[in-house]
Design a protein that fits this description.
A two-stranded antiparallel sheet has the order 1-2. It has 9 helices and 2 strands, in the order H-H-H-H-H-H-E-E-H-H-H. The protein starts with a helix and ends in a 44-residue tail after the last helix. A hairpin with a 4-residue loop joins strand 1 and strand 2. Helices cover 57% and strands 1% of the residues. By secondary structure, it is mainly alpha-helical.
């Protein structure tokens, strides 16, 4: 064999040894990696607390990286807290009411869809017309969940929170007055009690606004009944219902209320004071 042949043979032998060594090391490395993975899986299966801690650590790291990119904390579950529904997924009647209220009060249809759904559900349980519940909300707060009157009535249904604190205990405390669903449920409870105490819908509304012992409720009951009537028309499929068109409130009440298109209700001093006790 020539010198060049010896060199080539030596190079081949060296290369073969290197390749074989690399493959052996790699094979051993993968074997060790596989054993490590199996051991880790067994450990995490036997120790759920370690798995949870690892998941939290990883999630915290990912969120920290995301915050560094966008510049503010991320809350992936925020959409789950939002009081909102797609109105297109509602039954036709409820969707029509939600879109009509959205247009009139310039409120997004998604949160209104959630409130309409809740009003229909709680109305079925309490035997109150859901459009009446929505009418009270409309007149009281124009669907502003953070509204507060000069005398302390709060939220969508303008409940006197300091008076009905006990009713919020099941919702975590009085600050739930600013949670739309909690306020709606408490407000409906108060409204139900007022109607039962007064003996009629119109008188119950007078109790609700605190004008039971006053000569005039400032047109409050008439305004609620007028809005109730319009909402019933919308719910029944009537198109083109004007937000402030002519209505016939006597169909909804046993008494003839004041002109339905009166100015917004402005109860006398002592608003809602009449229902501060006895409920």
């Amino acid at each position: 064999m020539t010198a060049s042949g010896n060199v080539i043979a030596g190079v081949r032998t060296f290369a073969g040894d290197v390749i074989n060594g690399f493959l052996e090391v790699t094979h051993s490395g993968f074997a060790l990696l596989g054993l490590g993975v199996v051991f880790g899986v067994i450990t995490l299966t036997a120790r759920p607390d370690l798995r949870q801690a690892g998941e939290e650590e990883l999630m915290g790291w990912l969120q920290a990286r995301q915050e560094a990119v966008v510049g503010f904390p991320m809350e992936p579950a925020a959409s789950e807290r939002a009081v909102a529904l797609n109105p297109k997924e509602l039954p036709r009647e409820q969707a029509a009411v939600a879109y009509w209220l959205s247009k009139k009060y310039r409120v997004a249809p998604e949160p209104l869809a959630a409130l309409v759904t809740e009003a229909y559900e709680i109305g079925a349980r309490t035997k109150l017309d859901p459009t009446l519940i929505l009418a009270v909300m409309a007149v009281e707060s124009s669907f502003n969940p953070f509204a507060q009157s000069p005398v302390g009535a709060q939220g969508l249904m303008q409940v006197m929170t300091r008076v009905h604190t006990d009713k919020y205990e099941g919702f975590g405390g009085h600050l739930a007055a600013f949670d739309p669903v909690a306020n709606l449920r408490v407000g409906v409870k108060v409204l139900q009690e007022c109607i039962a105490r007064a003996g009629s819908l119109e008188d119950g509304l007078r109790y609700y606004v605190g004008a039971a012992n006053l000569p005039d409720d400032g047109g409050y009951a008439a305004k609620v009944l007028a809005e109730h009537f319009r909402l019933r028309q919308v719910a029944n499929g009537r198109t083109g219902v004007s937000p402030a068109g002519p209505v016939n409130p006597p169909l909804l009440s046993t008494k003839a209320p004041a002109t339905p298109e009166a100015a917004p209700a402005t109860p006398a001093t002592g608003e809602k004071v009449a229902l501060l006790s006895g409920l």
